[in-house]
Amino acid sequence: xxxxxxxxxxxxxxxxxxxxxxxxxxxxxxxxxxxxxxxxxxxxxxxxxxxxxxxxxxxxxxxxxxxxxxxxxxxxxxxxxxxxxxxxxxxxxxxxxxxxxxxxxxxxxxxxxxxxxxxxxxxxxxxxxxxxxxxxxxxxxxxxxxxxxxxxxxxxxxxxxxxxxxxxxxxxxxxxxxxxxxxxxxxxxxxxxxxxxxxxxxxxxxxxxxxxxxxxxxxxxxx
Length: 223
Prior knowledge:
With 223 residues, the chain is of the alpha/beta class. The chain has helices at residues 9-30, 45-51, 79-86, 111-118, 147-151, 175-179, 191-200; strands at 2-5, 34-38, 61-65, 67-69, 96-97, 126-129, 158-161, 170-173, 183-189, 218-222. Helices cover 29% and strands 19% of the residues.
């Protein structure tokens, strides 16, 4: 784990956008396509705002989420909705979006087809993760119904996940897919999450799922 501390959020977000752009550019110089995997939520929004204006061969970039709530794309709780508003615009509008949602009643019904759509984008060129104060990352939540399977070395690409307190089912990339990323970053803000990160370092992934990816991650933190 490599820990990077920044003096303020604006500097961190701009710096991280530049790092990601550089890593995508390097992947495009050495391969036909690159893939960028990002979290939902409000924290990465400023990173997306900077990144969508970067001059890259975006038509050769696959963009996908770490995880998604099982709600339609126009739902207010949809991560995809945020992505379309903040990242997949301006120059980045040319990128190929790889979905983690399909219009079926349950995620289980669409799992195979969605995983098949993601597989050509693996291994991920760049993966940006967030982390909750409960030490979850993606939709790998402590106490979730299929967490043990998702943490397994032979886990599938995608899993449905139901967690205590989550109002709808989730779909998430497995820890194996996240770990296999060429470049892996975790962005966190605030004292509470820094404390949670330090705690996670001494816990097993079943207690602190983010621990499953810490060894390979660059951590980016500011108050």
